[in-house]
Structures
1.
Amino acid sequence: MSAQIIDGKGTAAEIRRELAEQVAELTAQGKTPGLDVILVGEDPASKVYVRNKERTSKEIGINSTVHRLPEETTREELLGLIEKLNNDPAVHGILVQLPLPDHLDEEEVINTISPNKDVDGFHPINAGKLLIGDEDAFVACTPAGVLELVKRTGVPIQGKNVVVVGRSNIVGKPAAVLFLREHATVTVCHSRTQDLPAECRRADILIAAVGRPEMIKKDWVKPGAIVIDVGINRVDGKLVGDVDFENVKEVAGYITPVPGGVGPMTIAMLLKATVQAAARA
């Protein structure tokens, strides 16, 4: 029996509808959520992401401003803009689109964003709050979207074996902590994990976030498992995930497609964080 496809696009649309109602309520109170995005340079993928963020923000009533800066923008100019936005009460969320040009220090830039406006969840204070279980932490948007997709399957998470393949600060590590908070037993795998297929076969919930096209094979997956594919890889002009989708869907219970799975959820969770930031302001 083929897996049930998890419709990230449809779920993201549901979340946006829910958020539009909250935005309308906040606006009626004189507090319209504001999201400012900073794009430095001409990276083609970044330009597409930022355009999508701008469009979806405006669709639900968020004031969205994009600061498009040239490739040669200096450190002082970028940090000065961030400080200006930190002090602007009309701005509730600040996002600096990564990657940045080589002459700019991503860590320094992220650390300059106010933790109260860090809707991307990358600031060390928010990462630390997540680790200690502080519910006020802003959480990296992609793992937050992963958790939301799993929750909306209706399958209980408590007590399940969750295997995360990938240990990045953006996806793997925060995803592991989020599922620990849901009382799952979590294993984090990476390039030096011994017998990776065996570890994956233990998973009731398998999260692939390693950036290698179609690495997760059918015989790596426990029958009936929930498989969440975070990977976005371009192969021969086509987008594919980290999971061999066509074959794995024959054994999984639930599976996300690429595209149309986790991707749309990332922007939806960014908008959700912006609305939360406005509500707290």
2.
Amino acid sequence: MFGRGASNAAILFFGSLVLCVVASAQDPPPASEIPIERCDVLPVVKVRIDGAEMRFLLDTAATTVLNIKSFSSGRSKEIRISSWTGTAATSAREVFIPELAFGEHRLRDLKLPAIDLSPIGNACGGKIDGILGVDLLDKMGVTIDLKRQVASPSASPANARALYDQMETAMHHCNTAFELGKADELEECFDPEIVLFAPQGEFRGRKQVMDYLQRRFMQYSPALSYKMYLRDVKVFGDALWYSYDYEVASPKEHLVGRGMSICRRDGEHWRILNLHNSLREPSAAAVQSESPGYQ
């Protein structure tokens, strides 16, 4: 009979495996990624305000501000503007924005300051309608990748669930490798820097994780039954975080628990990066067959 810690870690791995499987090489780039353009050396992104496309300077050291030349309406008042040079009071116009769209994210009923930003546009040689600052970037959970020249707002719950569904439909390759004990095939489902936390220890990298799973759990393949029920899922840039309940049966024991995992996109593939879990007694935490989730 294998130890509880070994079983626990292996089961968590399997739960993560359901999602973090090889994605099709034909999949298009994520729709949530927004290209970062340039105005000379300055990073610029496109936003839509009330349906009109505008060019905003991307600045994580400033608060959001509009170019008064692009917005004719509003009321004047003293507003404090923050940027990398500090915070100062200035006479600006406050403009009401019914809707600002950045990729698939939409922010409504905004009141934003508007000042003359034409010197920035003149300096870089292009039109600048505003500055998209840290206040709105943080609200939308935007990740900026200057190397790839893209900005990625965090996915809405609906989009995160859609990504989960895509992963779930592609689970069969790694799922079969686990159940049949195909170690070489299974190893490719892990990120090279995977970290697995289990009651019996911490395992880092593919070799340690595979040695652990083979020695403690995969010897019982293929006599395994597994069910997994999604609790929550979120997307952060190229990373997928999710938590779930699970139930597993082998010839030796029946386990019920709760787990969480993180995967990330690695080129054309999704691979498991981090695993962590807890084990619950079946009598206290039986997973109901009618619960929503995926098997």
